């Protein structure tokens, strides 16, 4: 009986860290996992009319990352780095800003991501995403507000998405 208890304890010790490493248990990351599926809505740049957009969210890497594919040719990947929630954005500007979650709303109703660094930036004044505000308005309604900087000027891109019904 003692051997079975010891084996069970060893199993739990090995499994619990693995589950944690896969991202389970981080409330904001778990909320991102709930986005899995297809979404549709609108996208509008500051001062421009809105147009239609769709999105697909799926988990990968044994639920260690959430991939966001937007129909306008952009992809973002959300993942944990230890206790930090991170995001890499594969931008239509052909660069890859890396951001870190720095603020969370009550019950993770919003997540603010701020710029950490970037790869493939064409020049210091080249256009790139500088931040992101993600808001969970309802279980089936979110907004993404990308903060874009180019030549020292900021513009925002607002993506308003609702989960596609059955």
Would you give an account of this structure?
The chain is of the alpha+beta class and 166 residues long. The protein has a single domain, classed as Beta Barrel (Lipocalin), CATH 2.40.128.20. The chain is 16% helix and 55% strand. The chain is built from 2 helices and 10 strands; from the N terminus they run ααββββββββββ. The protein has helices spanning 2-21, 27-33, and strands at 37-45, 51-60, 65-70, 74-81, 84-90, 96-104, 110-119, 128-138, 141-150, 153-163. A 10-stranded antiparallel beta barrel has the order 1-2-3-4-5-6-7-8-9-10. The longest helix has 20 residues, at 2-21. The radius of gyration is 18 Å and the shape is globular.
Strand percentage, roughly?
Answer: over 45%
**Shape verdict:** globular
The strand order across the widest sheet is 1-2-3-4-5-6-7-8-9-10
Amino-to-carboxy terminus distance: 50 Å
Domain module tally: 1
Q: What is the helix/strand order?
A: HHEEEEEEEEEE
- Structural class, from helix and strand content? alpha+beta
Task: Please work out how many helical segments DSSP would assign.
Answer: 2
* CATH first level: Mainly Beta
Give the second-level CATH assignment, the architecture.
Beta Barrel
CATH topology: Lipocalin
Radius of gyration: 18 Å
């Amino acid at each position: 009986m003692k051997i079975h208890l010891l084996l069970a304890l060893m199993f739990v010790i090995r499994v619990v860290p693995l589950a944690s490493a896969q991202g389970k248990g981080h409330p904001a990351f778990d909320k991102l996992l709930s986005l899995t599926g297809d979404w549709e809505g609108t996208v509008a740049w500051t001062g421009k009319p809105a147009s239609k957009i769709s999105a697909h969210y799926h988990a990968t890497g044994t639920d260690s990352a959430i991939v966001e594919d937007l129909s306008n040719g952009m992809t973002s990947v959300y993942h944990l780095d230890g206790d930090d929630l991170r995001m890499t954005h594969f931008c239509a500007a052909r660069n890859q800003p890396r951001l870190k979650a720095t603020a969370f709303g009550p019950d993770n109703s919003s997540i603010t991501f701020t710029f950490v660094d970037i790869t493939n930036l064409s020049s210091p004044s080249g256009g790139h995403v500088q931040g992101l505000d993600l808001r969970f308005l309802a279980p089936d309604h979110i907004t993404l507000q990308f903060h874009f900087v180019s030549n020292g000027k900021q513009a925002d891109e607002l993506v308003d998405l609702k989960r596609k019904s059955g």
